[in-house]
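ugh ok fine here u go
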Amino acid sequence: MNAIEVSNLTKVYKTFRLDNVSFNVQIGRIVGFIGRNGAGKTTTIKYFRRDG
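structure:
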């Protein structure tokens, strides 16, 4: 069973773009979300939470 499932996510925000992102996280799993400064990590997480 999945705790989070994202399928074919596309989002354009100013110069930031997600294109066709898909993944799932199973219940009880720990994941990391890494990238360089300014890469859009926080913006992406906000979008998953529907804040963005």
